[in-house]
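BUG-298 | component: ligand-complex export | severity: low

The export step for zinc ion jobs runs without errors, but we want the raw record kept on the ticket for reference. Input record follows.
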Amino acid sequence: MGKSAVIFNEIFLKHDLPSHPENATRLHALLKTLPSFNIPVQDSKPVDMELLKLAHEEQYIREIEKRCQGFEGHLDPDTYYNEHSYYAALMAAGAVEKAVNLCFKENYNCVLCAVRPPGHHAERGRSMGFCIFNNVVVGALHALTSGFKKVFIIDFDAHHGNGTQHILADNPHVFYFSSHQYPFYPGTGSENENNEHIYNAPLSSGAGDKEIKQVYGEILPALINKFQPEILLVSAGFDLHEDDPLTNLKVTDEGVKFILETLVMTAREKTMPIIFTLEGGYNLQALERCGEIMFRLM
Ligand SMILES: [Zn+2]
């Protein structure tokens, strides 16, 4: 066991629209069992602007800032904003930046960024699918500039992380691995998009623990062994759970545990840090149980 932490700030609860599935109750649910564990909670910080500009167009960042100034509405049909959303999004990306620093400078080996808004659908110049800034991309780019030579991203959210794959498409130092329901929103993530540093494992509607065990027990370890990363970043989307109202995968608590255990053990065996960042997951009871599974492993 090594050093672990959860990164959280109250601002993640203020970007909120109670009638929307991606609302603040999700974080309460994820963190509900945390007090029973001896895991320190650390504060976030706003992302470094120069770092954010490596992931997103400056014009897009300014547009988000401007639109959130005391107003509320929608950035796109799926993604709402209020007066707190710009700062919440800066702090969400900043959480992953900070997690990388904890791992690089202070030898932390397992960090969970309990953040909202999520990030993996956000493109370089466009919000999408409840996401404003791409938190995991910011983390990957910061890891590379900090001195980690190769970064491996694992995205187990039920939706394909189109933004992550696209923004990092030309970066051979980052491997992007995603399992997701397909065909499904956002439409990307077919096997035809795979190359030396992108691997999509599309899952049919109804796929469950059996498929997950094959993907995470057999395919993923081989890819990690081949790529030889120095850090693992995980887009942890718990909407792959069978109880999720937005998706059609049938992964049980057991399947989620299998994924998390495999990832944490792989990182431990190879003595590299692992950082989880929250993406989707819209059933509150399932989120609470997934949080507990996660904290037991940290
Ligand atoms: Zn999702």
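Assignee comment: Attached the raw record above. The chain has a mean pLDDT of 98.
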